[in-house]
Amino acid sequence: MLLALHELWPEAPLYTSVYNPETAPWAKVFRVIPSFLQAFPLAKTNHERYSLLMPFAFESFNFDEYDLVISLSSEAAKGILTKPKTLHLCYCLTPTRYLWSGCDQYFDSPAKKIFAQPFIKALKAWDLVAAQRPDEYIAISKTVQERIAKYYKRESGVVYPPVETDKFRTMNYEARAIVDKYFLVVSRLVKYKKVDLVVETFNRLGWSLKVIGVGREYEKLRRRADKNIEFLGQLTDKELLGYYQNCQAVIFPPEEDFGIVPLEAQAAGRPVIAFRAGGARETVIEGKTGIFFDKQTVASLTECLKNFKSLKFESASCRQQAEKFSLKRFKKEFELQVLTKWQRHTKTIFTP
Question: How far apart are CA 186 and CA 182, in angstroms?
Fold first, then answer.
């Protein structure tokens, strides 16, 4: 998303709490301006330990010279301070997940909740104040639009993020070799992604499953998995495309704010089996480019997988759906939103 915005406004600098050029080499195209946290010990590699200082980090920036500031935020960036002449447009990834919609997932034990309660209370209070600072909001999905209204009491437009559909372009659909018999998961291996649900389901079914991705749950999941489940770790884009193209379907078990993986799968011509929640409901067409399961349980996913076996999906239809979320479409829609909101802003500020 940041690189797409850079293509629209290549001269705009990138302000951020901390910057590690080794883990974010893509950001070298920007003039990056980090906050005072950059000088703190281990901040570049473990910024989470400074969560309580993030509000101060973003409030410390001075944007007086700018007419327009776009904050790309799921946490503290929306809390920047701007003067009335400057239009602050927040492209919201979600209201801070660990404070609102995902609080129970992050603090999943009584002990964690008790320990974190004072910090959560303080951060929620700041977050509600910070949420009123943007002049305008754009949400990345209707799911996030609903959360912005629910938690922040703010209206927002929707512009779906861009998907690199060209990167996942497949060869001629009908001439392609017969699809292999494995199912595929592409995910960061962290708890809320619910990959453990898929592993447990395929342990019981005995069907072939391949898992692409890394994360703190990697070893735990590998130990739980039977021999029919293969963990492939981190792959190149070319390798990833190969696994996308040749799977039966991509399984998407979490509730995501938007979710890029289902669209990458469809761009590669493959259907999606997704949990019926979050952004997947907006990107997967039931019965045409995928199907949904209704509960995050082994029983519900198992039933859905068995139903999938009797269905047929056209690769061309999947690809056609993914192309609705292209980079070209994103840039056109986002620029139009900015121009519309800028015209409204200037009328408000400069009309006597």
Answer: 13
